[in-house]
Every structure is written in C-alpha cells, then in structure tokens.
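Sequence only, no structure available. Ideas?
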Amino acid sequence: MDRQEREGLHADLTRIERMNIDRRRMLSLGAMVGIGGGVAALAGCASPAGWDGPGGPPPPDGRFGPPPGDLGSMGPGSMGPGSIGPGGHPGGPPPHMDNGPVVTATAPDGNRCVSFAPETQGPYPADGSNGARGAISNVLGQSGLRRQDIRGDIGGGHDVAGVPLELTLRLVDVNTGCAPLAGYAVYLWHCDPAGQYSLYDQPERSWLRGLQVADADGLVRFSTIVPGCYMGRFPHIHFEAFASLDVATAGKFARLTSQLAVPADACDAAYRQPAYTRSVRPWAQSRDIARDMVFGDNGAERLKAMTLEVTGSAREGFKGRALIGLPG
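Reply:
I predicted one. Tokens follow.
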C-alpha cells in the first residue's frame, strides 16, 4: 500500500467516524474493509470534550487526513494483504443495497417520479440535532433563513465565490401519481469550494444554507454555487423536506432527509476554476459515485433521480434541477 492509498483510507475512516450512519450502512461499510466490528465501534465512540457532533472533531485541516508520512496506527500492512481495492478504496466498491423499496409513479404529463432514498444528514446540518464547541447549532428558527440566494451569510454579506448554480427542485408525491407537494418546506445546505461548512468549519459564517417553501407546482428555487469536494465523498448537496414551514422552523419531523449528487461533468468544469483549488486533489480520488459511502448503495434508477440534471457552463454558470419523490 503506497502513501496515497494509506492517506485515502485514513481519510475515509475519519469521515466514517464523524458521520451519523445507520446500522445498515455501517454493516455494509464494515464488510468493505473487513473490520465490521471495528468500524461500528468507531461510529459509536463518545465525542471528545468541546464537540457535540457525531463521532468526534474534524481533522485539523478540515478534510485531508494526516500529513504525509504521519499515519499513526494506519501503517503499511495494518489492514492485511489484499484489503485495498482499485483506487485506494477498501475492498472495492460497496455492495448495492437500496435504502428501502424504490417507489415509482407516472404523472399525467408522462414524467416519471422515483422515491428518493433517505440518507444521512452528515455531521454539519445545523438543524438542532448536534452542535459544535459545546453549543447546539440550529438555524431553522432564525429569521432570514427563508431565502432564495444562499451565497452569503443569513444576515447578509460574506458571499462565497464560486461557479454559480441555480437550483430548481420539484417535490412530488410518489403515492398519488407525482402530484406536487405544495406548501412543503426544504432546508438545503452544502460545503464551500474548499470543502468547508459554515457554522462548523467556519463557526462565524452561515453561508450556503437556506429554506424555501414549495409553490403550487411543488417548486423551490435556490441561488447558490457548485459545492466543493472533500476527501472520501462524491460532491453533494444536503436537504431536509418538511410538510410545512411551521414544521420546518420547529426543526422536527422531516419527511425526508437526503442528498443530491452533482454530476461529474459539472464538477470537472467547476474544479478547474481558481476558487476550487482545494477540491482538485479529493475530486481525483472521489470521482466514482459507485464507490461513494452514501450514494454507492443505491440502484441505477434511484441514483439517476438523485443526481442533478445540469445545463450551462463554468463561465456562464450552471442550472440544476431534480424531481424529488417522497410519500406525501
């Protein structure tokens, strides 16, 4: 195992420690690395003082694992021979196990909708479920969170530079012929071009977070940027869908917590721009969505639905859309 492979493996395990992954996915990841019990123990370990998030604090530099040559107990041979698959991923790609049954429906206009898989909210939701530096982090009740343009802080200012991305998401009920879910609320957040999250990696900032309410057609819109890439994850956008604005601002009972994947061609174009220099290296190692620890256990039909349809260019900006199916 060379240095790059060891760094990639260490970073992947660090991310597993910090993510709130359910038991099914944890067992899947355990099978990948051949140490199911050890990985489960990592996920359940207590957080150090000063950090209330799942699995302990982020690494000192935010994403990139240990400095070269400083691998601690993850030295050569610690995983046994044959444990590293192609590209430095433990044991090859994860097994494809859908997160529950795939429910599909066809709308009167002929469009097909697919139920989204519930996915982890990750360590940085700021929805009241965890915190950082000894305090619970929750923006859902803040005035100003309901906004379309999320590139700056909730109170204004400190806009994040990056390739523009205009998002249009349509929420539909897969149980009633893809009927629009008018009045549903969507809370959305993602990392910046350096792979950092506001309120956690950047505690004084609140950019790239916003809340919108679906119109009569089930549509919500956000003006944002292409998210960056960090080690161990395919580029993605988090969201939670609630049955109403009141339920959303109370911060409980999300009808769906999931993620949207950003297609590889859009990432290729965006990450050539100056703002994304810290995304280049992790993107080179994380560009296979089939190996992603979150998206990788979904079948082809569901994965296609969970990947944004993107048009445009890095120079002019991108437009992305998705049809989000959930039981109404």
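Helices lie at 3-18, 23-33, 36-44, 245-250, 264-270, 280-286, 300-305.
Hope that gets you unstuck.
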